[in-house]
């Protein structure tokens, strides 16, 4: 019988040690992640189960696998970059670096700033307001901005005022539909009896962001801009994967309507303070309380293809400038994010956060109409 000699070298020892260390690290990470929800959410078991059930494919599944739990905690599918959701966004116009899923926003402390405190002092009203509208600013004013505000969560250096002065890369002078209005988180709703539980969602389109989208579409159509409103529910019955399903809707609409150059994904923001009060972003327009609007622009910072993100941001800058001229105080600073948010689909794709969970639906409708008029001003100036 012959025996094979095995030579043990330092290289082999280091290799074995590396393999064993890798397994140990993976096991430790898996253990920490599995335990993390109890430490992070700090809520009772019923609420914890509710949080997980929103993100799991099967809401009735009692024993989700580890990947499903991780996906629910993160808020997106770790295997699919497109599902990163807008809940990973700062909620105070850049005044905080805290990044929280929406399901957890109402359970984390947030410093009260003077700006945020003032927002709660705005007079509440359910009136539709004065319908008199300011004239559209001329194209020179829309393209000549100074002092535009932006919350930049990326490492990119951006001159927003310079971008605003550039020409848009797309042309909307077509016979077919030019704008698609849709909602990744279709069930998002506003403050009041129509809100359904802590997550403040409602499947009745008379109360959720679809109602705001209807206002936006009506204003664009009134100004000769052909618009499609896709009211598909992407976050119900399963919340997880909303952005993936929304991308499918966008791609189908672009295939059927190649004239579409602009995609407006209409949402509403959300935050709940430790005392239980909700974030309310409001200003006064024509003597009536109006929800403020925040434009969210994505980038390719996370490695997902989005070469034209500066074109989207250019469009956002022009809208921001026009709205500032027409409705001072309406717009919150533009939110430039590392995530893509499906905005790679066109050169005119943006998220519109109309109001927050502390605003009324009436306030949001008014804010949506005014933002739409600013968009119409930009497009007609083009």
Structural features, described:
This protein is α/β, with parallel strands linked by helices and 382 residues long. The protein has eleven helices and nine strands. The protein has a seven-stranded mixed sheet with strand order 1-8-7-9-4-2-3, sandwiched between helices. It is globular and about 85 Å long. The termini are far apart.
Provide the fold topology:
Blueprint: H1 10-41, H2 45-55, H3 66-74, H4 102-105, H5 114-119, H6 139-143, E1 150-152, H7 160-165, E2 179-182, H8 209-222, E3 227-229, H9 242-256, E4 262-267, E5 282-285, E6 288-291, E7 293-297, H10 309-326, E8 334-336, E9 348-354, H11 361-381
Shape: globular
Strand content: 5-15%
Radius of gyration: 23 Å
Question: How much helix, percentage-wise, in residues?
Answer: 25-40%
Pattern of helices and strands: HHHHHHEHEHEHEEEEHEEH
Q: Compute the average pLDDT.
A: 77
In brief:
This protein is α/β, with parallel strands linked by helices and 382 residues long. The protein has helices spanning 10-41, 45-55, 66-74, 102-105, 114-119, 139-143, 160-165, 209-222, 242-256, 309-326, 361-381, and strands spanning 150-152, 179-182, 227-229, 262-267, 282-285, 288-291, 293-297, 334-336, 348-354.
Q: How would you describe this structure in keywords?
A:
alpha/beta, two-stranded antiparallel sheet, 382 residues, seven-stranded mixed beta sheet, single chain
């Amino acid at each position: 019988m012959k025996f094979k000699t095995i030579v043990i070298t330092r290289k082999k020892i280091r290799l074995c040690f590396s393999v064993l260390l890798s397994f140990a690290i993976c096991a430790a990470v898996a253990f920490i992640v599995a335990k993390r929800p109890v430490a992070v959410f700090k809520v009772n078991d019923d609420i914890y189960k509710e949080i997980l059930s929103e993100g799991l494919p099967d809401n009735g599944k009692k024993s989700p696998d580890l990947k499903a739990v991780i996906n629910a905690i993160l808020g997106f599918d770790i295997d699919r970059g497109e599902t990163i959701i807008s809940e990973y966004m700062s909620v105070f116009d850049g005044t905080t670096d805290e990044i929280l899923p929406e399901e957890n926003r109402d359970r984390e402390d947030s410093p009260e700033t003077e700006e945020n405190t003032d927002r709660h002092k705005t007079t509440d009203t359910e009136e539709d307001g004065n319908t008199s509208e300011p004239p559209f600013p001329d194209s020179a004013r829309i393209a000549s901005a100074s002092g535009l505000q932006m919350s930049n969560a990326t490492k990119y250096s951006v001159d927003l005022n310079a971008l605003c002065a550039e020409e848009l890369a797309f042309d909307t002078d077509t016979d077919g539909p030019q704008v698609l209005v849709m909602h990744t988180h279709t069930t998002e709703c506003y403050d009041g009896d129509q809100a359904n539980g802590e997550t403040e969602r409602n499947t009745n389109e008379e109360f959720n962001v679809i109602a705001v989208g209807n206002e936006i579409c009506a204003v664009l159509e009134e100004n000769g801009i052909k618009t499609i409103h896709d009211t598909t529910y992407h976050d119900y019955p399963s919340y997880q994967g909303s952005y993936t399903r929304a991308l499918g809707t966008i791609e189908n609409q672009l295939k059927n309507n190649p004239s579409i150059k602009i995609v407006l994904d209409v949402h509403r923001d959300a935050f709940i303070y430790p005392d239980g009060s909700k974030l309310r972003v409001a200003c006064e327009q024509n003597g009536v309380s109006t929800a403020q609007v925040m434009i969210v622009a994505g980038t390719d910072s996370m490695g997902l293809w989005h070469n034209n993100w500066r074109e989207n941001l250019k469009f956002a800058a022009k809208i921001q400038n026009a709205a500032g001229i027409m409705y001072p105080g309406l717009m919150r600073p533009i939110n430039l994010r590392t995530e893509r948010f499906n905005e790679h689909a066109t050169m005119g794709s943006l998220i519109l956060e109309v109001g927050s969970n502390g605003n009324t639906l009436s306030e949001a409708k008014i804010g949506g109409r005014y933002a739409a008029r600013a968009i119409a001003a930009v497009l007609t100036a083009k």
